[in-house]
Q: What sequence folds into this?
């Protein structure tokens, strides 16, 4: 399996592992930690209207269609990531996420915050509608939207 990750892609999962394993950020990325699943299954667990929900993290590996659209990270999502990073003790995390990538899973579109270092790899390696596997962490919901942080993607996975 060939994963496209950034050098420090594991720093987001490092907080969960560092207290027990002593691993540094670069060693912490472990694709096996990401359980196969569907974004829709995780996204369906929503807080009451108007509420935000912040979770430690829930790693998921999901097959999606890359739609080749990017947009700036919405302000409420940025605040949610900042609150999550502060709670997890990862002050560097918010600066890694400045944009979202648009993907589709079974006809439902999602905007997922993606690490900046992956944006160039996605735009150069992928074509619109390519099926990819994203390695993401669900960190909660804000404004009725699930927040999945994309830490890696695999374009070579068996489809």
A:
């Amino acid at each position: 399996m060939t994963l496209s990750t950034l050098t420090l892609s594991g720093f987001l999962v490092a907080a969960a592992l560092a207290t027990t394993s002593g691993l540094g950020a670069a060693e912490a990325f472990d694709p096996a930690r990401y359980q196969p699943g569907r974004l829709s299954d995780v996204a369906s667990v929503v807080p009451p209207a108007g509420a935000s929900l912040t979770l430690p993290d829930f790693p998921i590996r999901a097959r999606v269609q890359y739609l080749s659209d990017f947009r700036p990270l919405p302000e409420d999502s940025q605040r949610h990531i900042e609150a999550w990073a502060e709670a997890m003790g990862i002050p560097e995390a918010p600066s890694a996420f400045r944009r979202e990538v648009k993907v589709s899973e079974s006809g439902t579109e999602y905007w997922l915050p993606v690490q900046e270092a992956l944006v160039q790899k996605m735009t150069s390696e992928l074509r619109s509608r390519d099926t990819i596997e994203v390695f993401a962490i669900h960190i909660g919901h804000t404004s009725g939207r699930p927040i999945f942080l994309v830490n890696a993607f695999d374009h070579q996975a068996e489809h």
Observations:
- The domain at 4-154 is CATH 2.40.50.140 (OB fold (Dihydrolipoamide Acetyltransferase, E2P)).
- The longest strand covers residues 53-72.
- Confidence is low (pLDDT under 50) at residues 5-27.
